[in-house]
Write a structure and sequence with these properties.
By secondary structure, the chain is α/β, with parallel strands linked by helices. It has three domains: about 120 residues, Rossmann fold, CATH 3.40.50.1390; about 100 residues, Putative Large Serine Recombinase, Chain B, Domain 2 (Hect, E3 ligase catalytic domain fold, Alpha-Beta Complex), CATH 3.90.1750.20; about 180 residues, no CATH class. It is built from 17 helices and 15 strands. The strands form five sheets. A five-stranded mixed sheet has the order 2-1-3-4-5, sandwiched between helices. Strands 10-14-15 form a three-stranded mixed sheet. A three-stranded antiparallel sheet has the order 11-12-13. Helix 1 crosses helix 12, helix 6 packs antiparallel against helix 17 and helix 7 packs antiparallel against helix 8. It starts with a strand and ends in a 7-residue tail after the last helix.
Length: about 500
């Protein structure tokens, strides 16, 4: 059987922790040499330095396997070396595996996936990909944390809003934000006009265009941009991020009183809040019509009977109003919950033990990575100590000392974040997997004993792509619950 090698790294720390590309190549070549019926045919070696490049390299692997007229063994050191994203390559690989065109070999995880692989092995694979994706997301928090540090200092981490401009203060790259002398007074004029209550967004736009305020491309500002400016708290001294509001250190363009007055005007245009969730329903927001894709809207009859019907927003596709009782839509849900309830405890214990064994190999990787990070941190600290003494003795100038002090301390801060991430990520992931299995087993009990909001939350957690086809609810289970459902249908003690 032809065998191909896929080796991948994504960070310098992985290169230094026993996962360098040559190290992965050597392990895979050794595995192929000692495995009967495997003969090395091609190698795909790449550094995942860019996400788009990773997708291009992955596509080459898919194309190679697709072009072959025989089964190909794709050999990768571990699952997380293959991919850390369900959307990158895995759907195509899974189709090829089910068609019997590829086998997936992961010697580091002691896992081989074939067309006839049992549900237990497939579950191990899905869990491994989920945890690898989680770990990747945890590492990406480094950037978010550095942004958070800037926010605590009152700094804005993006492009300055219209009316301000970004500048560089010195050769070190220190950034600041100041008023845009040509447009700041015109942006203030927007607030003054709108606060009177006599100008709509459209009229403000027309007037401010006459006054000369245009975008950087020279176009008149759109009404949506005018609304964005009016509702942006940055102009009175507070910046908005995904984590909430925080005070910034830059000069305010308008007063808080003027900004508040604009918000009062904006909220007084006859808009009444829609009490969407006043009457909770189990499937609210979860179902769509299979015919036209519109939402299924719940209605209550006689105070206790709940029916769902298509909103018929696309009358050319779906013009007939059909009312379906909620109890009928719940029937397939209960069938799935009862099936999950049959998961035997011995199968849970078997999977958890396998995950524990995999966890021990991950601990070894974390240990190597942590050792490399601590070594670099200590080296930087030694340089800082020596540089400080040289500065006291006059061997280096104040400018040189400040420059390198800033560089070394910034890198030490990055290393501290990496150390924390490596320490926390995946430390007890098999416990999380055990929790998922037990949740699946108790899903029916939890669903029956919960109130409507909790039932809806549980269904949203379990189900995906839920539609109503005719008078029947059709849906798919989210991963890894779909694999767990397959596991419950597999006869105990029989493999495959």
């Amino acid at each position: 059987m032809k065998a191909i090698i896929l080796a991948r790294v994504s960070t310098d720390e992985q290169k230094e922790a026993g996962n360098s590309l040559p190290a992965q190549q050597a392990r895979m070549r050794s595995y192929i040499d000692r495995t009967e019926n495997l003969k090395l045919d091609k190698e795909y070696i790449f550094d995942e330095s860019a996400y788009k490049e990773h997708r291009k390299e992955f596509q080459k692997v898919i194309d190679y396997v697709t072009d072959q007229k025989e089964v190909v063994a794709l050999c990768c050191d571990k699952v997380d070396r293959l991919t850390r994203d369900f959307l990158v390559g895995l759907p195509a690989l899974e189709r090829l595996r089910r068609d019997g065109l590829v086998e997936l070999h992961f010697p580091g995880d002691n896992l081989v996936l074939k067309k006839e692989s049992p549900a237990t092995d497939l579950f191990h694979f899905n869990i491994a990909v989920s945890l690898a994706q989680y770990y990747s997301n945890a590492i990406s928090d480094n950037v978010k944390r550095s942004y958070e540090a800037k926010r605590r200092r009152g700094e804005w981490t993006g492009r300055a809003p219209i009316g301000y401009t970004n500048i560089t203060l010195d050769e070190r790259g220190t950034k600041d934000i100041i008023f845009d002398e040509e447009r700041a007074h015109l942006v203030r004029r927007i607030f003054e006009l709108y606060a009177t209550g006599n100008y709509s967004l459209k009229k403000v736009r027309e007037q401010i265009a006459k006054d000369g305020l245009v975008s950087e491309s020279g176009k008149v500002l759109a009404p949506s941009m005018i609304e964005h400016i009016i509702k942006n708290p940055f102009y009175y001294g507070v910046a908005r991020s995904k984590r909430g509001l925080y005070p910034h250190k830059y000069l305010p363009l308008v007063t808080k009183e003027l900004w508040d007055q604009c918000q009062k005007v904006a909220s007084s245009w006859g808009k009444k809040p829609f009490q969407y969730a006043a009457k909770p329903h189990i499937f609210r927001g979860l179902l769509r019509c299979a015919r036209c894709g519109c939402a299924m809207s719940p209605e209550t009859a006689k105070g206790k009977y709940v029916y769902y019907s298509c909103t018929n927003a696309k009358k050319d596709l779906c013009d007939k109003k059909v009312y379906i009782p909620e109890k009928d839509l719940l029937k397939p849900v209960y069938e799935v919950l009862r099936a999950l309830d049959k998961l035997p405890q011995e199968r849970i214990d078997e999977v958890v033990e396998g995950l524990k064994a995999s966890h021990r190999s991950k601990e070894a990787f974390h240990g190597n990575a942590l050792a490399g990070l601590r070594k670099e941190y200590d080296m930087l600290q030694q340089r800082l100590d020596k540089m400080y003494l040289d500065h006291l003795d006059g061997r280096i100038t104040q400018d040189a000392y400040d420059k390198y002090l800033h560089q070394f301390k910034a890198r030490q801060q990055e290393l501290n974040i990496l150390l924390e991430e490596h320490t926390d990520a995946d430390e007890s992931y098999f416990v999380a997997a055990e929790t998922v299995l037990n949740l699946a087993k108790r899903a029916l009990e939890i669903f029956e004993s919960s109130e409507v909001p909790e039932k809806r939350a549980l269904l949203n957690f379990l189900l995906q792509n839920s539609v109503v086809d005719g008078k029947n609810a059709v849906f798919a289970l989210r991963s890894p619950f779909d694999t767990i459902l397959t596991l419950t249908k597999q006869p105990t003690g029989l493999r495959g």
